[in-house]
Design brief:
It is a single chain. By secondary structure, this protein is an alpha+beta fold. The strands form two sheets. It has a four-stranded antiparallel beta sheet, sandwiched between helices. Strands 5, 6, 7 and 8 form a four-stranded antiparallel beta sheet that branches. Helix 1 crosses helix 2. The protein is globular, with a radius of gyration of 16 Å. It starts with 8 loop residues before the first strand and ends in a 5-residue tail after the last helix.
């Protein structure tokens, strides 16, 4: 299964050359502002290996995000199975992202996330894709809104793997295949 791509970005499985970048985005205070954990290099390498193995096995996951113009890996975007959402007892597929701060504000995540949504609905045949973020993580919830996801307040939850009270509450956003198809068929605005 071939990962999606965009005009400016290549989404691909992780390579050894990405290990430094992966550690950076998993230990950077700004990137990880809404996460409890900052990973050591060993922890980052183990997580990278786990994610890469999942992509190799199932054909999708949190793909490395590479700029076409420079060949530079700048973060990740992708789809990942999760059991973290209590209102989805049998599990679901989430869309997620992480990006180096110097690339914020250029639309890379929105562009890559839209390609991932198309992949999830059109290639994988998913019926729903979810995303969730700490309640005051306005950057992530803004991306969710920009890519057409809808807040589902009845599904907001205290993340079972988060201990810190200020980071525990998560907002749930969802997008169904039907909503995606409707969005694709909507006439373009002038």
């Amino acid at each position: 299964m071939k990962p999606p791509a965009t005009d400016r970005l290549i989404l691909r499985n992780w390579e050894n050359r990405d290990r430094e970048l992966f550690h950076r985005i998993n230990s950077d205070e700004t990137v990880m502002e809404f996460f409890e954990m900052r990973r050591t290099r060993q922890q980052s390498d183990e997580l990278l290996d786990h994610i890469a193995s999942g992509i190799a096995q199932r054909g999708y996951g949190f793909w490395a995000l590479e700029r076409r113009d420079t060949g530079e890996c700048i973060g990740f975007t992708g789809l990942q199975p999760t059991n973290a959402v209590p209102s989805r007892e049998t599990g679901c597929v989430e869309i997620g992202w992480r990006l180096v701060p110097e690339c914020w504000g250029y639309g890379y995540i929105t562009e890559a996330a839209n390609a991932c949504l198309a992949f999830g609905f059109d290639e994988l045949g998913l019926e729903e894709i979810v995303s969730f973020a700490v309640a005051n993580n306005r950057r992530s919830t803004a991306v969710m809104t920009r890519i057409g996801m809808v807040a589902e307040p009845s599904g907001d939850f205290d993340h079972p793997q988060v201990a810190r009270q200020d980071l525990k509450r998560h907002l749930l956003y969802t997008l169904t295949a039907e909503q995606w198809r409707g969005r694709k068929q909507a006439p373009a605005l002038p």
